[in-house]
Amino acid sequence: MAPRWLQDFRDGTADQADLLGGKGANLAEMTRMGLPVPPGFTVTTDACRAYMAGDGALPHGLVAELDEAVVRLEDTRGKQFGDASDPLLVSVRSGARFSMPGMMDTVLDLGLNHETVKGLAEASGDAHLAYDSWRRFVEMFAKVVLDVDAAIMDDVRSTHLEWAGVADPSELDTDAAHDLVVAYRSAVEGAIGRHFPDDPREQLQAAVAAVFRSWNGRRARDYRRMEGIPDDLGTAVNVQSMVFGNLGDDSGTGVVFTRDPATGEATPYGDFLLAAQGEDVVAGIRNSEPFGALADHFPDCHAELLDVLDRLEERYHDMCDVEFTVEQGRLWVLQTRVGKRSAPAAVRIAVELVDEGLLEPAEAVARVQPTQLERLLHPGFDAEAAFDVLTTGLGASPGAASGHVAFTADEAEARAADGESVILVRPETSPEDLHGLISAVGVLTSRGGLVSHAAVVARGIGTPAVCGADELVIDLDAQRMSVNGTVVEDGDLVSIDGTTGEVVLGEVPVVVPEPTPELARLLDWADDLRRLGVRANADTPEDARRARAFGAEGIGLCRTEHMFLGDRLPIVQRMILEDGDGHWAALDELHDLQRADFEAMLEAMDGLPVTVRLLDPPLHEFLPDLTELRIAEATDGLDDAGQEVLAATEHWDEHNPMLGIRGVRLSALEPGLYRMQVRALMEAAMARVAAGGTPRPHVMIPLTVSGPELAAAVAEAWDVIEEVVDGTELDVRVGTMVETPRAALRAAELAPHADFCSFGTNDLTQMTFGFSRDDVEARLMPVYLQRGLLPADPFATIDVDGVGRLVELAIEEGRAAAPDLEFGVCGEHGGDPASVAFFDRAGLDYVSCSPFRLPVARLAAAHAALAAGDAATVPAISREA
Ligand code: ADP
Ligand code: MG
Ligand code: MG
Predict the structure, then answer these.
(1) Residue 107 shares a structural domain with residue 235
(2) Residue 801: strand pairing partners
(3) What are 490-516's pLDDT values in tens digits?
(4) Is the same domain home to 554 and 482?
C-alpha cells in the first residue's frame, strides 16, 4: 500500500508541487528523468496540515512511514541509518509551494552521533571531515530543531576557538572539534533538560516536526500576509541521503544557471568550489571559481552536467538554476528550480527560447511581467561603470540620479532653485517636506518602507527614491550621515538607483536603456495577441515621434495647455485681459501658433488618430499669483497695466479651481477659444492633406457633465470643421472626456453627441473619492496605505470597486445608446499593468499612456488578452523550490 504521508522521489512528478512543495516536486521530476539525484523522499504538505491541526504530535502513522522510507533508502544506498561502520546520513530540507523566508534552515548530516561519526571517519578515510561534520550537525540541530538560544552556543564556541587560537571552527583539528561537540552537547542538555537525541530515528522525527513548526514562524507568516499566500498550504519536508563535496580534492560543490541570469546569454553561468559542501559556496568562505573551472577539474562531470542542464531546459522550457555536488569524481544534482533573472535577461531568454523551439510566442509573452519592463525602461546606473555601493535600501521609486546631499526640504528647495541637483536625505519624510521632494532629483531615507510618505510621493511625482536604507545613520543637527564608517557631509555628491536600492558615494553615470531587438520582437508578439489598442499621451512633436517608435497606435491625449506657456504666455494673458479687437487679435496670434503645433503633431502621427483635448485648466493658471499682486499693490502700487492684470486675476480667482470654471465650462464664458483651437487643428489637417498626408484629427472636449452642454460644444466644433474641411474626405471625430461621476452615470445622455468617450481617470478618481490629489497624496495616502485603509494608491492603480464601477457602467449604458461609441482611457492608469488588465475586461477600445510606458501597456494588454482567452498554454511546472 502506498504511504499516506510521504512519497519517494522516484514516485513523483513536477506537477505535484502542491503536495510536495516546489523543491520536492522538482527533485521527484529530476529523479523521474533519470538524473543523478541522491535518493530520498518527501513528507507531504498534507502531513504538515495534519500536524498543524493536531496536538503537536506527528500525524498518526507518519513515524512508521518514516521508518519504512528509511529502510527503502538504506536498500538503495547500501548503507544503514546508525551504522557504526558506513552510516547513512541525510539532509532535512523544508520546501513549501512557494519559497519563503523564515522557514527552517536545512540540517545536513543528520544521523551522526558518537558511533556513526567513527563510521564516517573510516568510510571516508577522513577523520577531520567526520568530526567537523558532526560539529556542524550538532550546532545546526541545536539551533534549528531544538531551539536552543544561539547565545548559549556562541559562548561555547568562542571559548573553544580561543583555546585553540583559531578564527573559525572549521580550522579546529579533529580532537578539538570533538571537544567542542562534547561541550555543545552538555550545554544543549542543560538548556533543554534532557539528553541530546543521538538516535537517528529520533533526530529525523524531531527535524520533520521542526520544519512543520517553522511554517508558522513569525517571519514566514508575515511574508505570507505580504504576498497573499494562504496560511493553510503547509510545507513539505525533503529527506535526502547526503553526498559529500568536501571529501578532498576530487570533490566539490557548486551552483549553476543554465543561462546567464544577468544578461540572459545562453551559456551556463555559476560558481564552483573545490573540496566544499553545501552552503560553503553561498557563504563565501573561500573564493569560488567560475563554473567553467569545473571542466578543468572534472571534465567528465562537466560534460555530464552540461547534458543535465540541456535536459532540464527541455523539460522546463525555461532557464533553470541547479545545485550540484561532485563526490569523489561523481556528479550529483541536489536541486533545481526555474531561475530568477534580471529584467533584460527575462526578455532575452523568453525570445531565444522561442527561437530554440522550446516556447510558443504567446508563452514567451506570458513569461515576461509588464512590471519588469517598467524597470527595464527607466534610467539606471550604468552597468559598465565601476562604483562601490555604500549601502542598499529599498528601491522605492524607479530611476537613477546623482546630486548633492541636502538634509532639509528648505535647503533642497533653495539649492535646487540655484540650479543644483539635490538628493534630499531624511530619516523619513512628512507632508512638510513636500517642497523638498519636488525640488530634489532623488530622495533617500533611512527609515520607512514602500508605502512610506517618501516612497508614495516620489512615485507619484516620478522622482527616483531609495527608502529604508537602515544602515544610514543620519545626524540632522550635524548635517551629516554615516554608513559603516563612511561619513557623508551636507553637499557631498551621492547617487541613488531607485530600482536596485543602491546608494553610492560620488557620481555614477546613468544610462537610459534602449529597447533591444529582443524586446521589439517580444512586443510584436504581444501586439498580435492583444485586443486593446495602445495610444500615447504626447504634447509635442518629439514626444509623438518617440511614442510612434515605442509602438503607439495614435495619440490618445494631446494636452494643449502646454502650448500656452513659455513665450506664448503674454499672448494668452492679452487674450484674457483685453476685450474687443485686442482679444481677437490675441486669439488670432494663438491660432497661428497652434496651427503650426498641430501640423507637426499630425505629421509625426500621419495615418493615426491624434486626439487633441481643447483647453482644460482654469484661466487663472495663466495669470500671476493673486496674493503677490495684492502685496505689490499695497507696497509699491501698480500702474494701469498692473491694475488691469490684478482685476483679471481677481475676476478669474476661484475658491476651488479644480471644481471651478475649466474645461468645457470655459468655452461658455470665452466663446472664441474653442473655435480658435478647432480651426487651428482643422487647417493643420488641410495643410497635411495638401502635403499628401493622411491626418486623422480627433477633437476632445474636456469635463462635460450633461447632454445639452456637450451638444452645444460639439455643434460649435462641427460648425468650424465643416467650414474648414469643406467636403474633403477626412477621419474627423468629435468626442468628450468622462471625468466626473455624473458624466459616467449619464453616459447614455452624452453618447448621441459624441463619436468617442475617453475616461480621464485622474480626475475621475479625484472626484469619485473626493480626494484632492495634490493634498491627499502627500499627507493622507501613506497613512492610509500603511494602516491598510486602502488596498493601493487609487491614483497609481485604478480603484476597480468604485471608479471601475463607474467606468463599466458608462461603457454599458453608453454603448446601449450608441453601439459604435468608442471608449478609451487617458491618464496615468493607462500605463499601469493592473489597471490595463481591468480596462481590457471592461471592454475599452484603447488605453493611452506616456510614451516610455507604452511597452509596459502593450505587454500588459497582451497579458490581459491571454488571461481572458487562456490562449497561452504554459506548462505546469514548479517555478519555486
Ligand atoms: P536553500 O534553500 O538554502 O538552498 P537547501 O535545502 O537547498 O537550502 O540546502 C542548503 C545547502 O545544503 C545547499 O547548498 C544544498 O545543496 C546542500 N544540501 C542539501 N541537501 C544535501 C545533501 N543531501 N547532500 C549534500 N548537500 C546537500
Ligand atoms: Mg536556506
Ligand atoms: Mg537550495
Answers:
(1) yes
(2) none
(3) 999 999 999 889 999 999 998 877 788
(4) no
Alpha helices in 109-148 (DSSP H): 116-124, 127-140
Residue 335 Cα to ligand 1 midpoint, Å, equals 8
Distance CA 578, CA 560 (A): 21
Q: Is residue 608 part of a domain?
A: yes
**Tell me, what amino acid is at 439?**
S
Domain harbouring 295, CATH code: 3.30.470.20
User: Which residues span the domain enclosing 154?
Assistant: 6-241
Q: Identify which ligand lies nearest to the alpha carbon of 252.
A: 1
Structural domains in the chain (count): 4
Using CA atoms, how far residue 66 sits from 7, 52, 145, 402, 583, in Å, is 10, 18, 17, 59, 92
Overall residue count recorded for the chain in this entry? 881
CA angle 554, 557, 562 (to 5 degrees): 125
CA atoms within 13 A on the CB side of 155: 9
- Residue 101 lies inside a defined structural domain of this protein: yes
Q: In whole angstroms, what is the distance from residue 709 CA to residue 672 CA?
A: 16
Q: Which residues line ligand 1 (CB under 6 A)?
A: 38, 91, 93, 106, 108, 240, 242-243, 278-279, 323, 325, 334-335
Catalytic residues: 453, 826
Nearest atom, ligand 1, residue 40 CA: 23
| Ligand 1, atom 26: closest residue by C-alpha | 278
Compute how many other C-beta atoms are within 10 angstroms of the C-beta atom of residue 68.
13
- 875 pLDDT above the threshold of 60: no
Point out the ligand 1 atom lying closest to the alpha carbon of residue 38: 23
Residue 852: other Cβ atoms inside 10 A: 18
Question: In angstroms, what is the C-alpha Rg of the chain?
Answer: 34
Distance CA 29, CA 152 (A): 41
Ligand 1 atom index nearest CA of 94: 6
Q: Whose CA is nearest to atom 13 of ligand 1?
A: 278
Task: With residue 333 as reference, give the H or E element that holds it.
Answer: strand 330-338
Do 224 and 231 form a contact (C-beta atoms < 8 A)? yes
Ligand 2 centroid to Cα of residue 337, in Å, is 14
769-826 pLDDT, tens digit each: 999 887 888 788 888 988 889 999 999 999 999 999 999 999 999 999 999 999 999 9
Q: Is residue 191 part of a domain?
A: yes
Do 173 and 277 share a structural domain?
no
97 CA distance to ligand 2 middle (Å): 15
Smallest CA separation from ligand 1 atom 12, residue: 278
Instruction: Give the per-residue pLDDT at 281.
Output: 65
The C-alpha cell that represents 477 in the structure block: 543637527
Ligand 1: nearest atom to the Cα of 280: 14
What confidence category does residue 376 fall into, taking pLDDT thresholds of 50, 70 and 90? confident
Residues 91, 24, single domain; the answer is yes
Q: Do residues 490 and 407 lie in contact, with contact meaning Cβ atoms separated by under 8 Å?
A: yes
CATH number for the domain harbouring residue 118 = 3.30.1490.20
Grade residue 881 by pLDDT with cuts at 50, 70 and 90.
very low
How far, in Å, are 168, 409, 482 from residue 498 at the CA level? 38, 19, 20
**Do residue 235 and residue 260 come from a single domain?**
no
**518 within domain boundaries:** no
